[in-house]
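Deliverable D5.2: sample structural annotation.
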Amino acid sequence: MSDSDEYEPINGSRAKFSVKRFSFPVLGYAAFVLVLVLFGLCTKLDDNSIPTMEKDEDEMSRVVVEAAEVPMMGSYGMMIDATAMCVMGFGFLYAFCSKYTWGGIVFNFFTCALCFLWCPVCTWIMSVIFHGKFERTAINVTTIVEADLVTAAVLITFGVCYGFLSPCQLIVLCLVEPLAMKFNEHIVVNFLKTSDAGGSILTHAFGAFFGLGLTYGLGVKPEHIPEQNRRTNYMSDTFALVGTIVLWVFWPSFNGALLFNDASLQQRVVINTYLAICSSCVTAIATSSLVHKGKLSILEVQNATLAGGVAIGMSCSFNVMTWVPVLIGGLAGVLSSVGYGKLSTWLESLGVADSAQATQLHGLPGMFGALAAALVVLFSSSNQYFAAETQWKEMGDPGQITHFGLILGAAIVTLVISFVIGLANGVLIRIPICDKVEHENLIEESPYFVLSQRSVLHDFIPHEA
């Protein structure tokens, strides 16, 4: 690699890229020091993790806490599943572009690690702002799962802005968006009294529309992206399919990991999610074949098959008949597949840049999930609605209509907050301290990695995306 500020890619074409060589490590270390200091001030080990001593005759011995006394440890397996979704599922899914395979995996990995650390601090900050409590955040399995849910929203935003952000800009995103999401979550849960166990709007729709606002703030348009940088190849698409399968398998854990205190509720969440995501897999693949006149689009198989997990998130905790999640998941698969097949082209004609087309997987199905949950509540005859704070509430008249309105209001509030703060964040990360990705280097990883002829993955037989 030359000492100049220009990078010469392996293919011989000289791509100009403004590289402030040490801005990424400097900002990266600064972010780490910030997290380190705030961890010392704002967090603590959970009480169950701290050893206690008791006197046994004349000797002191450590008190052994039985596993049954700490129910949250029963969600450890689900916590690992949710973490695997973020690190492996999204990571491989974002390997789909042949010129951003390493970028998709590595920057996804980096985003996960930084957000996992930053999220407990964000919880403390929101507690201070809204409750005036300066109590330290206890680090336990629940805290880690909550960090997974927040990190997933950031990863969805990363998908919308896939290849648009420099590493420095990505650090700013990791610090800003979790705060914005926790703020929106507090509004939805505590003021609008709306439950969203699986994050249809709190995670998926929020991340998608935050990303759209971010791209507008960055000023990136579809015509700015070099056509050759959009291409996939057989190997990159195969990596993405592996990510799809990881996400598909672990999605029930993602939706149910926090509900360890109620076994019947957690089982219902898992079952409803399982039914919905199976349904979306069937309908998405069938719809892809219909839209493309008898052939399948691998892009829709990689993404639209997961739409049921997104759409069922808000209603996965509801006490409904088993055909309801099957219907919601099936409709979400159709909606997402049609979105990838038809809507994405129309959005690009309007100047909407969404390089991973995450809007079709997370934005639209997330909003559809809110509408479906509102309709389920409106027409429910069981008088059982799973409200915020994981408590059952009676739904007598006019409670159903009230909850219907609150859910739709929560969806609108989430859309507005996510887009506006995303737009502001996009403007913020254009400041000179952050590297800017030039148009010719959008969705191009070569400026960020040490490459050699033997390490380039672009040499596999390519095909058009």
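Annotation notes: Residues 1-19, 386-398, 457-465 have pLDDT under 50 and may be disordered. The first helix runs from residue 23 to 42.
The annotation will be released with the project's public dataset once the embargo ends.
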